[in-house]
Write a structure and sequence with these properties.
The complex is a heterodimer of chains A (428) and B (527). Chain A is an alpha/beta fold and 428 residues long. Chain A has 15 helices and 13 strands. Chain A has helices at 17-31, 67-74, 91-104, 127-144, 158-168, 180-184, 190-202, 211-221, 267-280, 295-304, 320-328, 344-350, 378-390, 392-407, 411-427; strands at residues 2-6, 35-42, 76-82, 149-153, 171-176, 205-208, 228-230, 253-258, 284-289, 311-315, 331-334, 355-358, 371-373. In chain A, the strands form two sheets. Chain A has a seven-stranded parallel sheet with strand order 3-2-1-4-5-6-7, with helices on both faces. In chain A, strands 10-9-8-11-12-13 form a six-stranded parallel sheet, sandwiched between helices. Chain B has two domains: 2-11 and 31-305, 7-stranded beta/alpha barrel, CATH 3.20.110; 404-526, Annexin V, domain 1, CATH 1.10.220. The radius of gyration of chain B is 34 Å and the shape is elongated. The chains are: A alpha/beta (428), B alpha/beta (527).
């Protein structure tokens, strides 16, 4: 079987969980003999598959010499199209940053921690234009290439998927990694919503990364339940490493948040819970790693609560810094308001860090050895943090079984489910 | 006669290095030595060295007629010693002329006056000692960080024995009054106040090179012309400014050095002004009134208040967390902790966290090594978090030492108690024996005896022993016994009671001394 796949990011250039998921999934598929033509917008221009060190979502280094990796590329045809699509950016933000770049001619710094989005060359007037351009290229590509099914990841690639379907007449699968409701918390951009809905309506099957997302797709987008299938994400087992060597240099327990500091991730609930814990036990430290549009507000809040000597901001972390902070952490918290899946807790677990996750996350559906709380229930979150910091028996159990659990979440298994979906379409 | 009083502020903070979350608990070097030495060398070349040379020339030329005053922060002096001994030498040469007064301030150029009288006083003393040691004269005039002043701060300064203090002639405090007189503190009129003439000071410090200013370019003719227009009976024009004005804020190219070189000559030839130092003015001028400043003022920004350093959430959190450590730092005797404690108090760190000028900030931005106040805050808090860990560790050790002493003291008190009990038991026994001899009664029965019987008993008992026994006796017995003592016996008894107390006191002193020895054993060798 041959699949024409549209993505928007791929290692090494990734900003979130999507690139990692696409990589893991294609790798899983290739193990079962599926061939893939993977198309991504070329936003950076410096991809060098040989030289670049490939990293996953949170920047854990990937071994390029891995045999499996070499075998993987034999099954993959990797195509790039000129485009400036930037993941995880709303259309408003896109126009803001591109305009700024034009105005000042300088790099635009997205936050105080200078996580630079590097731009060079020219930009489309807006993100929608870029999406349309990508679709145009896709329809041309679909005529040229030979494949059995089309698979498009997230809304930016849906117009491309639809265009490819129309020009080739092949079946279309769209993959919902996140919905506009997750990203904005209900403050939905109508254009994005429309593209998402149109994509799912035109598609012959919709894959969601969790039942949580499946329900949103059915309820909020009115998609027929029969064609919506849940395939939970998995973890790339290959770059699993035992992280050690990095130890913390203070005595207190460390509770960590790692993710984009945006509404969706619920950083504000983490701070309020931290405050509650610190009222009871000042012998715990908290760290917020990441960057995003809510960062300044969060810093101010921490100062306001007068906990800045125990609550630290690390800025955006990648690579070995991520390993470092996990190796220092005693508890990891993902308090997401709405998380279609959520891959970071899995990375924490495989570094033997007990995790607390919000019930409003897809990953909660597959994990047993994690404490689950409602994102808004800061009392329960504080309780869980306090418990994991104080009751060794509890944290020991979570460490041990959590790691095993993650090791059993394999992309090969997820890929089998995806192949089932393909087969259903091809046989109908 | 009218006077021009020049005061120049010399200050460089110990800038912090970029200190990450991962460094907390591990790295103890907080200061950016490289950047600090780089900036010090740069400012030395552009400002301190040429301007000091210029002032020395002027003093040579005009003799005792030309005078200026300086306040140099301890953090600046430390950096002169480390990176620019040539600058320190040139200040010493200025000091040798006798025409230059050096003022006292807080060592760390800190905001301690707003938080802790003790810390404030300590820092001022440390600073004054350093000035005396370097320049040979103990300061008698005080200026607080950024000219921050209030009635209470003035009173603290007066308590330290300073006679004159400098502050801002802030409009909202002065109202219709002119800054060109001597004033006094509202709480303690002994402290005289010299107020900055901000109009004429800022003409030099800020507007000198401003081409949009209608008086640009500023010439000595113009400036001295304005001086002569000042009201006839006004007595002093206080020109207070950052020393970095000369060559650093106003570049050499603006002509600032030429202006200063020509100014004294023009003053002497075209006005009846002379130059004086704050201490001289403190001797010469009579105060015209006291000034009420209930809320602190400063020389900063349009508002002339504290909002550049304190008031937003970031600044208040950092400031309060820092000073929450004061008591514990005092318990530490590690010189590195003491030094870091000083350097972390420098007002600049809080200035960098100011959000007032987030959008436009020109002056602020120029001096701010951080991109945003948030970065400044996070970096400072990372360092402070590490500093807290160090201080906690030190004081924890001290605590265990203190516990040891406490236990030793407890043991001593127990033994003394035992000894005292033993003594009184012995005395009781003697009394009892006497009692038994007379009537077969026990000590407790005294309270039921008739007065005559008691008197009889008392004649038999040795007063000294009685006295000792009484110490430990119940109230009832005392009441029964004491009135029945004859006048003389009573007096003796009282004397003996006193002596007994003394004896015990000496015992106590003996024990005290033992405790002290123990203390010395434990703490004395640490240094």
């Amino acid at each position: 079987m041959r699949v024409l796949m549209f993505g928007w990011e791929f290692p090494p250039h990734i900003t979130g969980g999507l690139g990692t998921a696409c990589y893991g999934l294609t790798k899983g598929l290739s193990k079962h003999g599926t061939e893939i033509i993977f198309v991504v917008p070329k936003a950076y221009g410096d991809e060098d598959q040989e030289a670049a060190s490939i990293r996953n979502a949170s920047g854990i280094p990937f071994d390029m010499k891995d045999e499996e990796y070499k075998a993987y590329w034999e099954h993959i045809k990797y195509l790039e199209v000129g485009s400036n699509i930037i993941p995880y950016v709303s259309p408003e933000y896109f126009s803001k940053i591109t305009e700024e770049t034009k105005k000042t001619g300088e790099e635009f710094k997205s936050s105080v921690f200078s996580r630079d989005y590097e731009f060079s060359g020219t930009y489309g007037k807006n993100l929608m234009e870029e999406v349309a351009r990508y679709a145009l290229i896709a329809s041309a590509l679909a005529l040229k290439e030979d494949f059995d099914v089309i698979h498009a990841h997230d809304w930016l690639t849906y117009p491309a998927g639809i265009a490819a379907k129309k020009s080739s007449g092949k079946k279309l699968v769209v993959h919902m990694h996140a919905t506009e409701f997750d990203r904005t918390g209900g403050n939905v951009n109508q254009q994005v919503y429309d593209i998402e809905r149109q994509g799912m309506e035109e598609a012959d099957a919709v894959i969601t990364v969790s039942n949580l997302t499946r329900n949103i797709v059915i309820e909020k987008y009115g998609i027929t339940p029969d064609k919506v299938f849940t395939v939970h994400n998995a973890v790339d087992q290959n770059d699993m490493k035992n992280h050690n060597g990095n130890k913390k240099h203070f005595e207190e327990k460390l509770v960590t948040f790692l993710g984009r500091i945006t509404f969706q991730k619920g950083p504000d609930y983490f701070i309020e819970a931290a405050y509650k814990v610190l009222q009871k036990d000042s012998n715990i430290r908290f760290a917020m790693a990441g960057s995003g549009d809510m960062l300044l507000k969060m810093i101010k809040r921490v100062a306001q609560l007068r906990i800045a000597d125990k609550f630290h901001f690390t800025g955006f972390l990648q690579g070995s810094d991520v390993d470092h902070i996990f190796s220092m952490s005693d508890v990891f918290v993902m308090p997401s308001v709405s998380e279609p899946f959520g891959i970071v807790p899995l990375e924490a677990m495989r570094s033997s860090v007990p995790v607390i996750i919000s019930k409003q996350s897809g990953v909660a559906e597959v994990l047993h050895h994690a404490l689950k709380v409602d994102f808004w229930d800061i009392d329960a979150m504080a309780d869980a943090i306090y418990g994991l910091c104080h009751y060794d028996g509890l944290s020991k159990m979570f460490k041990k079984y959590g790691k095993q659990e993650v090791e059993n979440l394999k992309w090969e298994n997820a890929a089998l489910k995806v192949i089932d979906v393909y087969n259903k379409l091809l046989n109908s | 006669m009218k006077a021009i009083c020049f005061y120049f502020q010399v200050h460089q903070p110990m800038r912090l290095r970029s200190y990450r979350f991962f460094d907390i608990g591990e790295k103890q070097d907080y200061f950016d030595d490289h950047n600090n030495s780089y900036i010090m060398r740069k400012v030395a070349q552009k400002n301190y060295l040429p301007m000091n040379a210029l002032l020395l020339d002027l003093i040579k030329e005009y003799g005792s007629a030309f005078k200026v005053s300086f306040s140099i922060s301890g953090t600046a002096l430390d950096q002169f010693e480390a990176y620019a001994p040539d600058v320190l030498e040139s200040f010493k040469r200025l000091a040798e002329t006798g025409n230059v007064e050096f003022l006292a301030e807080t060592y760390a150029h800190s905001l301690a006056a707003l938080k802790s009288k003790e810390e404030f006083t300590n820092q001022v003393q440390t600073q004054a000692r350093k000035i005396e040691q370097l320049f040979g004269r103990k300061p008698t005039t005080f200026r607080n960080t950024e000219l921050i002043y209030s009635d209470e701060i003035g009173a603290m300064v007066a308590d330290m024995g300073y006679k004159v203090m400098l502050t801002e002639g802030a409009k909202h405090v002065m109202g219709w009054r002119s800054p060109n007189y001597m004033y006094t503190n509202a709480i303690n009129p002994k402290l005289k106040l010299l107020l900055k003439n901000f109009q004429m000071s800022d003409d030099i410090a800020f507007r000198f090179s401003q081409q949009s200013w209608k008086e640009w370019p500023l010439t000595t003719e113009k400036f001295v012309g304005w001086l002569t227009q000042i009201n006839r009976d006004e007595e002093v024009v206080n020109l207070f400014m950052d020393y970095e004005t000369f060559g650093e804020h106003q570049w050499e190219e603006t002509g600032i050095f030429n202006f200063m070189r020509a100014l004294p000559g023009r003053v002497f030839s075209h006005s009846d002004f002379e130059f004086a130092t704050p201490a001289e003015l403190g001797e010469k001028l009579q105060p015209v009134a006291s000034i009420h400043v209930p809320h602190p003022i400063s020389w900063a920004d349009e508002e002339r208040d504290l909002t550049a350093w304190l008031g937003n959430e970031l600044q208040d959190e950092a400031f309060d967390k820092l000073y929450a450590l004061e008591e514990k730092v005092k318990m530490c005797d590690d010189p590195k902790i003491k030094q870091d404690w000083l350097y972390l108090q420098t007002s600049d760190h809080f200035y960098y966290m100011c959000t007032k000028f987030f959008s436009d900030g020109d002056v602020h931005k120029y001096f701010n090594p951080y991109g945003t106040p948030y970065e400044a805050f996070i970096n400072y808090m990372n360092i402070l978090s590490d500093f807290i860990i160090r201080v906690e560790k030190q004081t924890r050790y001290s605590k265990t030492d203190a516990d040891e002493v406490k236990n030793a003291a407890k043991k001593l008190i127990e033994t003394t108690g035992k000894m005292a009990k033993k003594k009184s038991r012995q005395a009781k026994k003697v009394v009892k024996e006497k009692l038994d001899k007379t009537k077969e009664m026990n000590f407790e029965d005294i309270k039921n005896m008739s007065d005559t019987a008691v008197k009889k008993l008392l004649r038999e008992v040795d007063l000294q022993k009685l006295s000792a026994a009484m110490e430990d006796a119940g109230e009832e017995i005392r009441e029964k016994v004491l009135p029945n003592l004859g006048k003389r016996a009573r007096k003796q008894f009282d004397q003996m009671q006193e002596e007994l107390k003394k004896v015990k006191k000496s015992d106590i002193n003996k024990y005290k001394k033992e405790i002290e020895d123990k203390l010395r054993d434990i703490f004395g060798n640490k240094k």
